[in-house]
């Protein structure tokens, strides 16, 4: 349906913008939105309609940044302890990376390579760290650059670390709804000496379409304390290098 396609293409949009873009009445839009909300595909948030994550779609980056913040902060604190002074970091559009930047004590000594404008703006606003932003095709809902130009640039570099997240986990494999985003994650893993997955426990119950790695491919998988203890034990038995963050203080 036109309303759903427009919301997922843009990530978040107002009802008035939907009416202008689709050419249908606001009454029809509200009826369609009610059905989409009932199916868990969208949510109304701060006066805007936001696409929610699913096996085929990822949620808007601004919306994701405000979700599960307590878990993401604890993960960021544990992950920041892995990063020595003066490191170079590759970071994709994962919003967990924003919390990591806020947790790193000496960010000014770092060099950050990213395809994410949220990451870039976070560094620019703090006037810290050397920043390298890739080119590529801009995806508004992700606030990030994507495409072959991104992966080619990443392939031409080498960093000490890459920090990524996953939209969903199935078995021991990591997935994302969009192939282009999965390719960026794979490229960063190939171009980094140490790869780190930032994974809040809600991702364990989600599914997505494109596999980009196995959990065992990462040097560290940092999770929050909300992950089921039995699952923690099973992952460690499978030789996943798991770091469980301390509970939020």
TrEMBL record:
* Record's keyword terms, sorted: Transcription, Transcription regulation
Q: Does the keyword Transcription apply?
A: yes
Source domain of life is Bacteria
- This chain belongs to which protein, by name? DeoR/GlpR transcriptional regulator
SUPFAM superfamilies referenced in this protein's UniProt entry, alphabetically: NagB/RpiA/CoA transferase-like, Winged helix' DNA-binding domain
Classification via InterPro entries: Carb_Metab_HTH_regulators, DeoR-like_C, DeoR_HTH, NagB/RpiA_transferase-like, WH-like_DNA-bd_sf, WH_DNA-bd_sf
| Native source species | Actinomyces lilanjuaniae
Q: Ranges for the HTH deoR-type domain?
A: 1-51
């Amino acid at each position: 349906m036109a309303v759903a396609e427009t919301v997922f293409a843009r990530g978040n949009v107002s009802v008035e913008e939907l009416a202008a873009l689709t050419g249908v009445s606001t009454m029809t839009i509200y009826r369609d939105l009610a059905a989409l909300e009932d199916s868990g595909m969208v949510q109304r948030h701060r006066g805007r309609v936001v696409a929610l994550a699913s096996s085929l779609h990822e949620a808007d980056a601004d919306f994701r940044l405000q979700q599960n913040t307590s878990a993401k902060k604890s993960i960021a604190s544990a992950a920041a302890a892995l990063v020595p002074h003066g490191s170079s970091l590759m970071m994709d559009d994962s919003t967990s990376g924003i919390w990591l930047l806020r947790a790193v004590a000496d960010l000014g000594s770092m060099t950050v390579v990213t395809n994410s404008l949220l990451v870039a703006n976070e560094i620019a606003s703090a006037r810290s760290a050397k920043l390298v932003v890739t080119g590529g095709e801009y995806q508004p809902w992700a606030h990030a650059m994507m495409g072959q130009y991104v992966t080619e640039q990443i392939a031409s570099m080498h960093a000490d670390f890459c920090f990524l997240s996953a939209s969903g986990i199935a078995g021991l494999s990591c997935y994302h709804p969009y192939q282009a985003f999965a390719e960026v994650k794979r490229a960063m893993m190939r171009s980094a000496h140490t790869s780190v997955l930032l994974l809040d426990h809600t991702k364990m119950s989600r599914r997505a379409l494109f596999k980009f790695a196995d959990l065992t491919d990462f040097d560290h998988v940092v999770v929050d304390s909300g992950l089921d203890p039995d699952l923690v034990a099973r992952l460690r038995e499978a030789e996943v290098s798991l770091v469980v963050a301390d509970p939020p203080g």
